[in-house]
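Researcher: Please generate the 3D structure of the following complex. Treat every line as part of one assembly.
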Amino acid sequence: MKKVIYLIFTAIIGLFTSCDNELDIPAQSAIAASSVPLNAEFVETQVVSVYAITDGNLDNGNVWRSAASNWVYGEVASDNAYKGSDPGDQQDISAFERYQGFPSSSFVDVKWRAVYEGISRANLAINAVNSGVEAGTLTDAQAKSFLGELRFLRAHFHFEAKKMWGNVPFIDETVTESTTNMGVDVWSRIEDDFAFAVSNLSETPTRVGGATSWSAKAYLAKAYMYQLDFPSAKPILEDVINNGPYALNVLFHDNFNADTENSLESVFAVQYSVNDASNSSSNGNWGDILNFPHTSPIGGGCCGFFQPSQNLVNAYKTDANGLPLLDTFNNEDVKNDQGISSDQPFTPYAGNLDPRLDWTVGRRGIPFLGWGDFPGKAWIRDQSNGGPYVQMKTVYSKDQEGSAGAIGTWGGVNSINLNIIRFAEVLLWRAEIAADEGDLEKAKTLVNRVRERASNPLNFVRRNDGTPAANYVVGVYSSFLDKEMAIKAVDFEERIELALEGHRFFELVRKGKASQLLNAYLEVESTKRTYLMGASFQPTAEVYPIPQDIINLSRGVLEQNPGY
Amino acid sequence: MIKFKFLFLTIFLLCSQTGFSQTQSVSGTVEDTNGSPIPGANVLVAGTNRGTITDFDGNYTIAVSPNEQLRFSFIGFIDSIVDVENQSVINVSLQETESNLDEIIVTGYSKQSTRDITGSVSVIKSEDLVATSPTSLEQSLQGQASGVVVNLEGGPGGSSAIRIRGYGTINGNDPLFIIDGTPTAAGLNSINPNDVASIQILKDASSAAVYGNRAANGVVIITTKSGKRNNKTTFTANGYVGVDFVPSSVFPDFATPQQLADAIWKAELNTTGTTPNHTQFGNGATPILPDYISPQGTSGNVDESTYNYLTNPITRANKQGTDWFGEFFDPATIQSYNVSASGGGENSNHFLSLSALDQKGVASETSFTRYTLRANSNYSITPSFRIGQNVTVSYSDRIGIDGNQDTERAISSLTRIHPIIPVWDVGGNFAGSGVGGLGNGRNPIAIQDRNKDNHDLGFRAFGNIFTEYDLLEGLTYKSSLGFDLNTFNSSTFNPFHKQDESPEANSLDEFSSFERVYTWFNTLEYQIESGKNVISALAGTEFNKRNFRQFGANRGGFLFNDPLNTRYLDLGTNNINNYGNGLITAYWSVFGKIDYKFDDTYLISGTLRYDSSSVFTSDNRSGVFPAVSLGWRASNEDFLKDSNIFTDLLFKAGYGQIGNDGTISPNATADIFAPNLDFNAYPIGNNSLAIGNGLISRGNPNLTWEVTTTYNVGFSARLFQLFNLDFEYFDTTTKDMLLAVPEDPTVFGNVNSITKNYGEMNNKGFDISTSFNNTTSGGLTYSIGANLSHYKNVVNFLDPTNLESFIDGAAFRTHRPNRTQAGQPLASFFGKKFLGIGEDGRMQFEDINGDGIVNNDDQTFIGSPHPDFTYGINFSAEYRNFDLSLLIQGSQGNEIYNFMKFYSDFNTFPGGKSIDFVTENGLPNLTNDPNLILRESAQSSYFVEDGSYTRLKNVQLGYSLPDSAISKLGMGVSKIRFYLQGKNLVTITGYDGIDPEISLTSFSGAGSNLTIGVDSGAFPISRSVLFGLNVTF
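Model: Done. Output below.
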C-alpha cells in the first residue's frame, strides 16, 4: 500500500513539471512581434498598412467621423454644404455646421484617433526599417525607399492634424509617451518629412497610388501654402508644374470616376476598392457611406447626408461671357424644386451655368450619372431640413454598379479614389501666389487653364439626345483688372473647381477669410435653412476642439484649444 | 508548503494503524424514523476500515469487539454511533436530515456536512429547482439563494448571467460552474434542470478557494442525480404544457398618426412660425392624413391593380395607427417532457434521463427546442474500488430574436416605426418606412419573418469518467477526466427585400465553431476521527486545456430567396468572404485542504492552491493563494447547551484569496500582427488589394494574476427547532484587475489599449436568509423562506495615477450612458442632470461646474444600475393531497437607463412617439431646432428611471392522487400528481418600459459588464400558465 502512495506522490511531482511545460502555448491565429522577420517582404506589408489608414477607416463603424474626404469638417462646416438628412440623424454634425463643435463629440475623437493611428503605423514601420537595417535584413536602398514613403505618410497625417486642430503634437518614431501640443513647431517637422521624401523617393511610384518625389514636392508646397509662405512655395510649384509628370484631365469628371483613377491629374489620392477580398468592401469609401441620395437605388439609398448649399449652387452662375459673378452670385437663387414633389412638374433653371455644377451637385431634372434625371424630392431625405440638392463627387455611375459601387454591411460604398491633391489645385496655388505678387498675367493664365477645361463642351452634362442638360456658358478671363480682382477670381475658381472635396473650410481659415465670409453666409443662408438661425462663426472656431477623451487619456498633457 | 502538506498526510496515515482484539457477531436492522428499513446504509466499525452495508430489508451482520463502536450512516440521514459493549442485536433508527443545516453536500472536490461549513455556501435542493418549471437551470436559481442575482435575457433560449455578491471585477463576472466535478464556463443552457439533484453555491473565498482560477466570482456546484444501490429501478415521468404570453397592459401608450402629424405642424410653428411642407401630410394649415403613404401622401383613389413590388409599391395608410407591440407579441405554446429511470443493484447504480423542451417565442417567429440525454452510473469493482461516469448530451435549436437590445433591430423597432405604416402593403409584401417622411424605423414583423428559418444549432457533450480507490480506511484516491465538447452552427439568410430605405440584396452567413475542453483532476482524501478530533484532508492536482476554433463565411447574389434548399453558400455568386481563428489555453493547479473539528464545537478549515495559467508568460504564470476559515458552535457551550432557543448556533469567519486570469486574451502578453484584409490592406485597383500587416493588439509581458480577497463573517442559527436564520457580512476586494488600459491614442494610435494589472474594486454587503417550517396538528405542513441580499460595489480606482480615468460602456447612438470610474459603482449612469421644464418650455439641466453655460462639461453621475437589495420569498405548503408553492422575487433601488425614450420622447427621428411627446406633458415644447433637439435628447437623468420591481415569479398548485386510487391503477404506479402553474403573473413596478428585468446588454464578450441596466430594446420576460403531470412507477 505504501508503494502505491509513493507512486502516486511521485506521479504528482512528475506531473508538476511536465504540466507546467504544457502551458507554453504560442500566440494563436496571429503573428507575435517577436517572431516577425524584418525583411523587405514583411516591412513592405507594414508600409501597405500605413497607406491603408489614409482612408480614416478604423473599423467600418464610425468612418464618417474620420472620413478622408473631410466632408464634415471641410465642407459642411463651410458655405458649401449642409449636414442634410433628418434633423435627428448624426446630430453632432449640426453643431459643427453651426460652428459650435464641442470637445466631447465623438466626431473629433474618431478623427483624432484615425489620424494618429496613421502616424503610429508609420512610426512602427520606421522602427521596423531601422531595426531591419541594423539586423542586416534590409539593404540601404530598400530602407531609403521605405523611409521616404513612411515619412511622406507621417507628414500627410500630421498635416491633417495640423489643419484640424492647430495645436497638435508632432509624434516621431522616438516618442513613447504623451507630449505637449502647445507651442510645437509642427510645420517645420512636416516640412522636414516631406523634404526627406522628396530626396529619397523616386520620380515614379513603387506601388499603385504610392508617394513619389513629385507628390512629396506638391505636398511640401501645400504645407507652405498653408503657412502663406509664398516665397518658399513658389519655386517648388514652378518645378512641379513645369517639370512634373502632371496634367489636367480632359474630362473634369474623370477625377471622380473609378475607371479613370490615378490619372495624370492625380497628385496624391486615397485608393479605394470594392468587392475585393475584404468583408463588406471595407476598402471602399466608407467615409462617405452616408452621402448617397436617400431612397435611391444608389449606395443602398443611404442616407441623404452632405447636401450642397444654395450658396454653392449659385456660385456656378455665369454671365454672358461665361465668367462667374464674383460679387453678385448670391443675389438671386438658381431656381430649385424646394417643396415640389417628384411627380409634380418642374422646369430647371434656364440661366447661364458652369457645367462643373452638374458634376458636383445633383439637382432636379438634370441627368445624374446614368441613373436618369435627378428626381428631386423623392431622393432627398428631408427637403425641409437639408434643401433640394445632393452631392455627386463620391457617387458612382449606373454602369459602375457592382464594379465601382457595392453594398457593404448596410450602406453603399464605392471605389472612386479620393483626391488629396490634384493638379488643378496645384495650378491654382501658383495662381494664388501670382495674384498676391501682382503678377496678373500669370494668375490669369493659370486660372484660365483650369477654366478652359471646364469650357470644353465635352464637359457639358448631356441628355440622351446629346443636348446639353442646362444652359452652359463658360468662358476664360480676358484680363484681371487689378490685384484685388485677381485674388478674388483665384479664390472663386478654387471654390467652384474643388467644391465638396473637403478643402473649403481649411482654405478659408488659411487665407484668414473664415470669419467675415462665413458670418455673411450664415446671415443669408439662415433665411433658406431655418435651422441655421442664430448661428455665427467665432474666430476660435478656426480650429476644432481637441477631443476631451484624448486629453483625458494623455493625463492632461494635451491641452484644449482656446475657446472650447 | 505543498510538500509540507504531503508530510502531514503521511503522518496521519501512520496514525491510523490501530490494533485488533477479540470479536463477536452483531446484527440488527437500520430503519428510518417511520420504521421503514434503509437498504444500503453503511455500518462501519468506528476508526477502522471494517464495515458492511445493509441489505434490501435494512439488515446487517458484522463482527466487532465489545470495546468498539459502530457508526451507522446513510446519505440524507444523521450518523448514529453506538457502543457495542455486550449487545448482539443493535437496531438503529436513523434520523432524516430535516433541514439543509446538516446535509451532506459537495463543497470542493469532496463532501462535507452543511452543518460544518465555515465558509459561505447556499444550498438549493432539487425540488426547489424544478418547482418553477424552468427552461434553463439559471432561471431556477432566481430568488432562491441570498447573494445570488440571476440576470435573464428574455426570449426562448435566451442567455443568462449569474452574479454572486455583486460584480467582483471588470472582467468576466460569471461564476465557475462545476458539474459533477468537471469545471465549465460555458453556461448551463444545455443542462436539463430535471437531472439536477442539488446545487451548492460557494460565495466566499474561503469556500471557493480550493477551486482556484476562475472561482473568484463564486462557484456553482451542480450535482446530478444518481440511482440508489439495492433499489429497484423506478421511472419518473414529468411533463407540462402551457402558454407563454406578454400582456398588452405592459405596452407603452403611443401617439396616434393624427397626433404625430399635428405635432409636426406644431413643431414647425414653434420653430419658424410657418407651416411645414411634409412629404406625407401635405402643406396646408393643418396636416392631412393621406389615404396612401406610397405613392407618398396620396389622398383619393389609387389604382391598386398597377401594384408592382419593385417599381410601383402601393401602401395604404393606417390612419388609426398600427399597434406594433400587439402585432408583434402573441401567446405561444411551451411543452416540456422528461422521463428518467434510476435504481441500482448491490454493486452498481444508475440514472438515465431523456428530456425534450419545445418553446415557441411570444415574439413573432422565435423558438427554442432542446433535447437532452443523461447517463450517470457508478460501479463497485471491489468494495474499495469504484468507477463511474456522468455524461450528458444535448442538442438545441434556437431561432432567436433578431438583435436583442440592438437599437436598429426587432424590439427597438417596435418603438421606432411610425404607426401610420401598416404591416403589409396592398400586394401582401411587408410595408416599411422607405416611403419617405416617416423616419427610418424598420418593420419589426418583417425583421422576424425574414429571420424565421435562421437556426442556431448547438450540440454539447459534457461529463466525466472517474475512478475511486480506497487505499486505507479513510484514505481515498480519486481520478476524474472531464470533457466538454461544444459545437455551434448558425446559418443566417437575409432575403432580398425592399421595405425599408431601399432594396437590400440577399446574403447568407454561415458560422461554425468547435470547442473541446478537458480537465483531469486527481485527489487524495483522508478522513480520521479520534476522540473529539475530526480531521479531513484533501490534496490534489488539476490540469485543464481548452481548444477553440471557429470559422465563418458569407456570400451574396443568390438567385432565389425562398426555397430553403437553395440557402447554401455554393449558390451565392458575389461578396464571397470567409474568416477563421482560434485559441488555446491551459492551466495547471495543485491544491490542498484541511478541515479540523474539535468536539463538534471548534472548526477550522485551511486551503492552499497553486495555479499556473498559460495566458501569462512563464515568468509570471504561477501564483499561490491561501484561505482559512473558523467556526465556533456556541450552542455546544455550556451557557447555551440547555437553551430552549438555540438548537444550533454557529459563528463563522473566513478569509481567502483567489487568483483570476481574468478571461483575458491568450495573446495579451505579446504585440500581435495580422494581415487584416479590411483595415490593413490597400487597394491596387478597383477590386484588388495589396496585403498589409498591422499591429492588431499591444501586449504586456508582465501580466500576472488578478487577486480577489474576501473577508466573510456570519452565523447560522436554528431556533426553536423550527426556524433557521443565516446572516453573513462580506467584504471583497479585487486588486491588480486585468484591465485593457487605453493609452494616449496620440502616441499609440488606435491600437492603444494595453492589458495591465491595474485597478481595484470592492464589494461589501450582507446576505440574510431565513426559513421556517412546521406541521400543524391538522396535518398542514408548510414552510416559508425568505432571503435578502445587499451589495455595494465601488471602483476604488482604475488607474492609480489618474483617478479621473474612466471606461465608458457601449454606445447607443450618441449616448454612452454607463461610465466606470474611481469612487463610483461599476457602470454607473453618467450624463446631465435634468431639472425639469422651464418657463420657456425647454428642458433645464444643472450647471454642475457653475460656469453659467450648460453643456457636456456639466455631466455627472446620475444613477446606478445596482440594486440596494434583492430578495426572494418562498412559501410552500402541503395539506392532504394538495400542495402549493409560491415564489416572489424582486429587486429594489436599481435604476434603468431607458434609452428607448431617445426615440419616443424627442424629435430625433420621425416615427413612433409617446403620448407625452405630442402633449408636451413633462416634455419640452415641440421644436424642429436641431440644436435644441441635440441638447435635450443628449444623455441625462431624464432617461434614468427607478427599476425596482416585485414579481410573483411562480405559483403552483398541485394535487396528488390518493394512494387508494393509485393502488387501483396497478401497473406499479406509485405516484401521480397534477399541477397548475403560473409564472411571472404579477409584477409591481414603476418602470415605464415593457419589462423591468433589464440587466446586461450583451451576455458575452469582453466589456459586457461595463454596460448594465440600459434598456435599448430588451425582449421582455414572458408570463406563463402551465399544466403539468408527474408520474412515478
